[in-house]
């Protein structure tokens, strides 16, 4: 699995949320910080992006605001300081007629960290995209964002996955991001992602990277911000969360797939990372989806 696919798969372990925003006249709204990645697509009008740090940015139809790390930010009908925004998002009154229409979505991770390709990007990226594929996906996202029709719970994360893939490709082609990782570390990360149930040791991973264990541990931690052991555990549990959210596999089957000796050991590790038992995690997210 390539690094962009891996980043999107990791983000997809989170809960997919989307809202449609329509405003008229003078208005402001703030999006709080989240543990995850999000984006906004302007469909009509010329709102101002209000970043937490930096100057307001005038947007137009077709512009995309990519927020790969989930920092707080906002939007407004006029340029203004971030401190003047309301403390939380102001729901769209959905006026008719409206001056501004933009759709917002995010993957909200319950626990854990975003993929290193996302954490290595700037806090907020604005893109003017002349791509029929992206425009088509933006239209689909706007159609499914209200979540009022059968199948929206399945369609929404699929559309968001495709948009995230497109945006990461565009970022790479236009701006040279995501940053290139050390090829040896990238090879190890890919192997971990493709084999979440394999009981890797640091010595095995360092051999894959063709480094001594000490050198590998240092360079891996510098590249990812985690020790190899912590990263491997998190990747396994991220995959576990994704399987719990999107499949009906029994806990024993998930535990075996992820390399845990027993269902109990998987449940204990998952509870430490996510703060809740796997079964309760699955029921909670199904209740949210059905609600």
TrEMBL record:
Q: Which residues form the HTH araC/xylS-type domain?
A: 186-284
Cross-referenced PROSITE patterns: HTH_ARAC_FAMILY_1 (PS00041), HTH_ARAC_FAMILY_2 (PS01124)
Asked if ATP-binding is a keyword of the record, the answer is: no
Q: Which key words are in the record? A: DNA-binding, Transcription, Transcription regulation
Q: Which Pfam families match?
A: Cupin_6 (PF12852), HTH_18 (PF12833)
* InterPro entries the UniProt entry points to: AraC_lig, AraC_XylS_family_regulators, Homeodomain-like_sf, HTH_AraC, HTH_AraC-typ_CS, RmlC_Cupin_sf
Under the heading SMART domains, the entry gives:
HTH_ARAC
| Signal peptide (from-to) | none
Give the start-end ranges of region Disordered. Answer: 70-94
- What protein does this entry describe? AraC family transcriptional regulator
């Amino acid at each position: 699995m390539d690094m962009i696919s891996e980043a999107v798969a990791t983000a997809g372990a989170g809960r997919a949320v989307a809202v449609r925003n329509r405003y008229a006249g003078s208005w402001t709204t703030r999006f709080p910080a989240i543990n995850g990645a999000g984006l906004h697509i302007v469909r009509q009008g010329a709102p101002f992006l209000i970043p937490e740090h930096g100057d307001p940015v005038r947007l137009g139809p077709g512009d995309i605001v990519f927020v790969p790390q989930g920092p707080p930010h906002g939007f407004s009908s006029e340029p203004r300081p971030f401190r003047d925004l309301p403390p939380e998002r102001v729901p769209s009154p959905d006026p008719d007629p409206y001056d501004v229409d933009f759709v917002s979505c995010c993957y909200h991770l319950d626990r854990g960290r975003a993929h290193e390709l996302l954490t290595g990007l700037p806090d907020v990226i604005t893109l003017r995209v002349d791509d029929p594929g992206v425009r088509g996906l933006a239209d689909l996202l706007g159609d499914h964002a209200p979540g009022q029709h059968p199948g929206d719970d399945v369609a929404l994360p699929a559309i968001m996955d495709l948009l995230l893939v497109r945006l990461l490709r565009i970022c790479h082609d236009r701006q040279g991001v995501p940053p290139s990782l050390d090829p040896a570390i990238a090879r190890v990360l890919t192997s971990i992602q493709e084999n979440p149930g394999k009981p890797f040791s640091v010595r095995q991973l360092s051999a894959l990277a063709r480094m001594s264990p000490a050198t590998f541990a240092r360079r891996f931690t510098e590249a990812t911000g985690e020790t190899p052991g912590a990263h491997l555990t998190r990747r396994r549990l991220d995959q576990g969360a994704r399987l719990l959210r999107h499949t009906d596999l029994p806990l024993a089957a998930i535990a075996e797939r992820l390399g845990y000796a027993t269902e109990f050991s998987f449940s204990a590790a998952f509870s430490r990372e996510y703060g809740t038992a796997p079964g309760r995690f699955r029921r909670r997210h199904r209740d949210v989806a059905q609600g």
